[in-house]
Amino acid sequence: MRKEDGLPEAYLGTIMSVSTDKSGNVPHVEKKGAELLVSCVVAVGVTMLLLFPSLTMAVVKPRLYDGTINVLGRYSMNFDAYEHISRTSESSVIAIGSSKMREAFDGQLLGEIDDQDHDFYNLALAGDLPYVRMLETSAIIDLNPAFVVIEIGPNTFSSLATPVPESVQSRMAHIASLGAVDLESIPMGVLNQSDMEILPISRKDQLEHLSSYVPKAIDGTLKIELMTTFRLPHPCLESPEDFHASSAAVVCVPLPDDPAYDEYLRYPTQFPNTLKSIKAGNSSLGTIEEFYGPALDSYLNRSNHNPEGVVNKNQISFEYMIEQFTSVGIEVILVGLPYNPVLLERLEPGQWDYYNQTIESYVELDLVTVCDMMWDPDWKEEHFNDYVHMSREGELLFTDKLMQQIAPLLEG
């Protein structure tokens, strides 16, 4: 069986492990017979999945959503989310950004306060980067939301190597494959050629990328069946009414046909309050003095928490999204999210000046509103779970401040 027949190399290697010796005999056939049979069955299954992409996703999607395959289910949900929103909402407001935005934007509460019948959705992703998110630009334009709320912060302008590191490449390949993204339609000045060469460009390449998930999906499904049979705990096997109860369920996303799905898109599962646990003496992270000690300095000095200070791939992608959205009449709301004030006090003079200078340059853009909460003195330590993510108290304050600034926009 040849590679060009569509069979992944991993399975070719397994099947071809039964080889002849110098005399032409097949050694240890009896010992390897069972392995060969299993390999052949799996190989046939994978080939069928390659031929029938919908079958591939039926097998793979549940294990993408529960984080079995790629750790975070949210990186697999957005194209389904766009489709769901297009079917169920007449006027949507979507929020994108990193886990900071995911922990701040309560779409349910915003919808209750808004009296203009908008639906608010939280589609932020942990570790999100503009260079990765820009792959979804066309899908967001097709959705045609009334507003796109975009996080802006030091991480927006952080450095990114060329070619991108493997962790970023895998996320980009994943998103491109799930969304059938036409990478060649993205301007070369936005998507670097060196990065293009390590991504699945053709639809065939993208389908093969998705099919590579099949073995892990099958293995994960079997494990979950066993856990269900023996009533073993699993963070993604909660009832809809308890979906937000488990901190471990942050990695999980309900499937589109789950009753909890729409609610989840508006207000996803949140992190536990680490600071509260530390202060109560219930955390493995030690004392509050240790939490705010050298660990904070190390955290603050990471490249992803600091602007590079020059126009780079992330900034170009960020501005590309803004330009693409506004060019078709989609209004953009840029939100500078605050940080724990203890962290801000540890900044070196001028460390985030590039952020301050750059966000100011966006104020005059057409169809762009800037809401910069970064240096707002109203933000206190109790508004945060940790160094950067908001507590419930922070979410409530954020909702109040955001609505004060955007209410006139929502009223049209």
Description of the structure:
With 412 residues, the chain is an alpha/beta fold. It has 2 domains: 49 residues, no CATH class; 357 residues, Rossmann fold, CATH 3.40.50.1110. 46% of the residues lie in helices and 6% in strands. The chain has 20 helices and 5 strands. α1 runs antiparallel to α2, α2 packs across α3 and α3 crosses α12.
Give the name of the CATH superfamily of the largest domain.
SGNH hydrolase
Tell me the series of helices and strands, N- to C-terminal.
HHHHEHHEHHEHHHHHHHHHEHHEH
Characterize the main sheet: 5 strands, parallel
- Broad structural category: alpha/beta
Number of helices: 20
Quantity of strands, as a count: 5
Choose one word for the global shape. Answer: globular
Summarize the structure.
The chain has 20 helices and five strands. It is α/β, with parallel strands linked by helices. Helix 3 (53-65) packs across helix 12 (214-229).
Task: Give the secondary structure arrangement, pairings included.
Layout (H helix, E strand, L loop, with lengths): L8 H7 L13 H23 L1 H13 L12 H11 L3 E5 L2 H4 L4 H7 L5 E4 L7 H4 L3 H7 L3 E6 L13 H13 L14 H4 L6 H9 L2 H16 L31 H6 L7 H6 L8 H4 L2 H7 L12 H15 L3 E6 L4 H4 L8 H9 L6 E5 L19 H19 L2
Parallel strand pairs: 1-2, 1-3, 3-4, 4-5
Helix pairs in contact: 1-2, 2-3, 3-12, 9-11
